[in-house]
Amino acid sequence: MKFSCYKNDLTEALQFVIRAVAVKPMTPILAGIYLRAEGSMLELQANNFSTGIITRIPVNTEVSGETVVSGKRFQEFVRNMPDDTITFSDEDSNNTLAIESGGASVELLTMAASDFPKVKTPETDKSFRISTTALRNLIRKTVFAVSKDDTRPVFTGCCFEIKGDKISLVATNTHRLALATEQLSNSYEDCSFVVPAETLRGIMLRIDPKDVDNYVAINYSTRYLTFTFDNVFVNSRLIEGMFPPYDRVIPASSTTHVTVDSQEFKNAVEFVSLMSKETEYNTVKFVFSNGGIEISSNSPEIGGATKNVEAQIDGDELEISFNVSYIADVMRVVDAKQINIALNDKYSPAAFTEPDNPDYIYIATPVRA
């Protein structure tokens, strides 16, 4: 096998496919990435049996072939090669892959391609299509809110919910919740299933936000789901379990309504968060009154930080505290110039929405400070 390719193309592909490389492999082959060069394409595969990824990039192939290399080491050396073009060859040895670029070279031990468990297409009986940019937006607006605690697996993924020609993604760790909805081009059978967050982060990484005319084909069954678009194929095992009725935590009304400039609010939250990192629960206090928001945090060992932001406030004045990460996270995905905040009292969840976007809502539960 001998081929050459652009470093950037391969680096991006490896950043995506490495997500399906087994972290604690049962056998060494599962820590590897399968490579197959033929014609003008290089196919890369990784498979940890929960998620399988296939992606392809353009290459110049002199000699067709296939092999398996250590995924982590391969990614590291490719990323650090000095030139824009890299050449790969295993012609001089039966068990090493030579990598050369800009005067730098390295040889990596290889494994037999015949031993690699190729990514297969699972049997699925239902499907739908969604634009790549719509899917990317749904994931970006929700996946950050999943739980990091795998003792309750259903909260470590995003719930996909289809009702007619609408699709919603919901994520929660029971202390916060993100819900985003997009329009589909057709109506589909109502359904609901939970997809692992790591799979979705990989999909989001691989979608070009400028590729507005492309679509993702999603096929699913009771146990598996596949994504197919461009030169990408991903299969993933679904998370078992029932996702809770999330609509119960969305406040039906509020007594305080706030509208604030998104960038100014985000900057203030990030500034005060530098102090809140020194507190036990990463707590920041928000005081809504007199046409503004006072954001502050105090640490007995370090000191205190305060930032004031102008805002339009209608209703009762209110003092409330949050884990600052829950506020900073949502502000990173807000697209609107302003953000609306609906509140009731210091113990009730707050709702964050974009003024002209009825299809997104974020709920954060306060800290009892």
Overall description:
This protein has 369 residues and is of the alpha+beta class. The protein has 3 domains: 2-115, DNA Polymerase III, Chain A, domain 2 (Roll); 126-248, Roll (DNA Polymerase III, Chain A, domain 2); 251-364, Roll (DNA Polymerase III, Chain A, domain 2). It has 6 helices and 23 strands. The chain has helices spanning 7-17, 71-79, 132-142, 197-206, 262-276, 324-331; strands at residues 2-6, 32-38, 41-47, 51-58, 60-63, 65-70, 85-89, 96-101, 104-111, 126-131, 157-172, 176-196, 215-220, 224-229, 232-237, 256-261, 283-289, 292-299, 303-315, 318-323, 338-343, 350-354, 357-364. 36% of the residues are buried.
List the keywords.
369 residues; alpha+beta; DNA Polymerase III, Chain A, domain 2; 3 domains; 13-stranded antiparallel beta sheet; 10-stranded antiparallel beta sheet; 23 strands
The name of the CATH superfamily of the largest domain reads DNA Polymerase III, subunit A, domain 2
Biggest sheet strand order reads: 5-1-7-8-9-6-2-3-4-15-14-13-10
Question: How does the major sheet shape up?
Answer: 13 strands, antiparallel
The number of strands is: 23
**Low-pLDDT windows of residues:** none
Distance between the termini: 63 Å
Shape: elongated
- How many domains is the backbone divided into? 3
Structural class: alpha+beta
Tell me the CATH architecture of the largest domain: Roll
- The level of helicity is 10-25%
Q: Determine the CATH topology of the largest domain.
A: DNA Polymerase III, Chain A, domain 2
CATH class of the largest domain: Alpha Beta
Listing every helix as H and every strand as E from the N terminus to the C terminus, the arrangement reads: EHEEEEEHEEEEHEEHEEEEHEEEEHEEE
Report the radius of gyration as a whole number of Å. Answer: 24 Å
Beta percentage is over 45%
Mean pLDDT across every amino acid position? 95
Summed up, the helix count is 6
